[in-house]
Amino acid sequence: MSNRNGIGIEINKDWIDIYHNICDLESLKPQKMIHGDSRETLKTFIDKKRYEFDFILTDIPYWKMDFVEKSKGTYKKVGEDSKGIYSEKSKLSRFSSDSKYFERTKEDWESLIGDIFSDCFSLLKSGSYCAVFIGNMYHKGRYFLLNADIARILGQIGFILKGEIVWYDVNKKLHLYGINYSWIPSIVHQFIMVFRKERNNTLNKEEKESIQTRNLEIIKNKSSIKE
Ligand SMILES: C[S@@+](CC[C@H](N)C(=O)[O-])C[C@H]1O[C@@H](n2cnc3c(N)ncnc32)[C@H](O)[C@@H]1O
Q1: To the nearest 10°, the Cα dihedral for 167, 39, 12, 23?
Q2: What domains are defined for the chain?
Q3: 42 CB within 6 A, ligand 1
Q4: Using a 6 Å cutoff on CB, does residue 59 contact ligand 1?
């Protein structure tokens, strides 16, 4: 609608079909949509040296959120299965049926995010922005600040955090989770974390040196893994 050209990457073909259906319904010209794994596709962009992006927008997987049972029962005991009729699992948002993704630890997720955003950093023009959609999650009795993890991981890569937008989703209903047993909040918001790849000349000497050192460490670690 704003006459920009975009390239999308999505691993689950169902979402790509939905995107094309929406383009048809709204009479929009479809943008280039690649069905694939970002971990591989971004590397091919880097290898081809043809691509440089003005903006990167990502709606990443929220650690295990794709796989966690959405409990919408009126109440349930801690550890007990939800009461069936209101319980739902969306198969659509699953990006792989591979069991290794079901068992993905927080460390696996952080390393995946680190790999993908290191490539995003290489592909983004200096002075340009990267916006990351992320929601925090409640899992096994504990609340995880995934937005804080994202700020830390992208900061280590060299992105500068510029701000956050809280997206209150008015369509999300409030639920009585944990009633009679514990207090569990309904999560009705997500974050859009906004980062910038600063132009080199706006960084001070220490910042430049620290980014260079970190990049060298990443390269060294990657080459020692290959060896
Ligand atoms: C939080 S969902 C976003 C879904 C959709 N954009 C929406 O607005 O509802 C994360 C998306 O990332 C996709 N995904 C997960 N890992 C991926 C990867 N390695 N490469 C490409 N897409 C991936 C999933 O299939 C899923 O559609």
Answers
A1: 60
A2: 37-226 (3.40.50)
A3: no
A4: yes
